[in-house]
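Sample pair:
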Amino acid sequence: MYYDITWTGFVGKTPSDRHREIFKIVSEARDLGVKTVQDAISAGKSIAGWEVDRAVRGHIKKAGYGEYFIHRTGHSIGTDVHANGANMDDLEIHDERRILPNSLFSIEPGIYLPEFGVRLEVNVLVRPGSAEVTGKIQRELVTI
């Protein structure tokens, strides 16, 4: 399986308040996507890819940046990076495929403004009864 992640950095002395604000919104959206999956799986509830996308997209939209989130929330991951499982998608398609045990997918929201963009990606592995992020989660904006 692939490890497909995206972290965001800032090149310069100090990120502006706006950079930090957008980073915070995107990280909250990513974490909400993970929690949405974890809560459903641990409760034994069926969940489809579109439901994850809708939760993540709703958070970004509520913050006033919906028009700047221009791609699906995530995709199935397999031995060829993009696999044939459920995609976290209610934008390009309304993916009704269920998220199944022993599957892996990305959650990768982003806000892309004309002057800069932020994208944060993690991978989520689903097991029977649980779901977990594989690898580290970016919690702070990296200054380069």
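The longest helix spans residues 17-42.
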